[in-house]
């Protein structure tokens, strides 16, 4: 909390030093604009629209990344087949994907697909790395005692994957919001936060720009905390 207060004080001091709201709006100006936006119906429609699509893209990328990583860890040929696709998705800039996806899909589904593409390789690679890091002696012991797959999953694989998945999700959640909003900024679907950022730029409204940016940061952090908490509770329930 002290760090947040310090950051706000630095921001306020910088705004007073610049003394030009067009270049740098003060925290008070941004807060005032934020409260004004929150009093409108369109604000909540916009927040709901973007949140639903980015969260959907993240969940699809998470689910497919985990499933394919487990299959690739079991079947080496699948890992080899997936390697060029994963490397390509990981390396291509978001802007290139956005332009390409706009040719395939409407702008309304853009943020879902882009969030999915940014999340998938992070989850896939970290999950696969976690599986490969599993202690071979533990696997050998499980094989010796003919341990069923369910018990191997519960007592060997899931505890091994936990730190890898936590780390991957923490990175992927931030990426999903940044890439999803960037996609909306380029595609400009109606009732999206990306479109609101674009309109703030067109009207040179720095307070609006900062207000929407604050909302994106807060939503990203809130979803990250909730998802990681749910994952932790899920792990605790399964590993009991």
Q: Describe it for me?
A:
The protein has 240 residues and is an all-alpha fold. It has one domain (40-238): Orthogonal Bundle (MetI-like fold), CATH 1.10.3720.10. It is built from 10 helices and no strands. It has helices at 2-18, 27-38, 41-74, 76-91, 94-104, 110-132, 136-144, 149-187, 193-202, 206-238. Helix 5 (94-104) crosses helix 6 (110-132), helix 5 (94-104) packs across helix 8 and helix 9 (193-202) packs antiparallel against helix 10. The chain is elongated, with a radius of gyration of 22 Å. The mean pLDDT is 83.
Q: Cα-atom Rg, whole angstroms?
A: 22 Å
Topology as a string of helices (H) and strands (E) = HHHHHHHHHH
CATH-defined topology: MetI-like fold
The low-confidence parts are: none
CATH domain class name: Mainly Alpha
How would a crystallographer describe the biggest sheet? none
CATH homologous superfamily annotation: MetI-like
How many alpha or pi helices? 10
Number of domain modules:
1
The 3D shape can be described as elongated
Helical content band: over 70%
Mean pLDDT figure: 83
The number of E-state strands comes to: 0
- Tell me the β content: under 5%
Summing up helix and strand content along with how strands pair, one would put the structural category as: mainly alpha
CATH architecture: Orthogonal Bundle
Q: In angstroms, what separates the terminal alpha carbons?
A: 34 Å
In short:
This protein has 240 residues and is mainly alpha-helical. The chain has helices at residues 2-18, 27-38, 41-74, 76-91, 94-104, 110-132, 136-144, 149-187, 193-202, 206-238.
């Amino acid at each position: 909390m002290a760090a947040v207060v310090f950051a706000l004080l630095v921001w306020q001091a910088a705004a007073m030093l610049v003394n030009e709201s067009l270049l740098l709006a003060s925290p008070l100006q941004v807060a005032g604009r934020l409260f004004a936006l929150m009093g409108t119906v369109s604000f909540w429609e916009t927040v709901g629209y973007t949140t639903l699509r980015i969260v959907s893209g993240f969940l699809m990328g998470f689910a497919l990344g985990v499933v394919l990583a487990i299959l690739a860890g079991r079947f080496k040929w699948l890992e080899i087949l997936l390697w060029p696709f994963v490397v390509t998705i990981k390396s291509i800039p978001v802007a290139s994907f956005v332009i390409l996806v706009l040719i395939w899909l409407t702008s309304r589904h853009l943020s879902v697909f882009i969030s999915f593409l940014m999340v998938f390789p992070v989850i896939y690679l970290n999950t696969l790395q976690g599986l490969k890091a599993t202690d071979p002696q533990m696997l050998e012991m499980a094989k010796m005692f003919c341990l069923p797959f369910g018990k191997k999953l519960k007592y060997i694989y899931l505890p091994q994957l936990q730190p890898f998945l936590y780390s991957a999700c923490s990175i992927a959640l931030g990426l999903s919001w940044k890439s999803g909003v960037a996609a909306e900024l380029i595609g400009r679907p109606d009732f999206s936060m990306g479109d609101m950022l674009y309109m703030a730029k067109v009207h040179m409204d720095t307070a609006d720009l900062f207000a929407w940016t604050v909302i994106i940061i807060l939503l990203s952090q809130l979803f990250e905390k909730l998802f990681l908490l749910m994952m932790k509770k899920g792990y605790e329930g399964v590993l009991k």
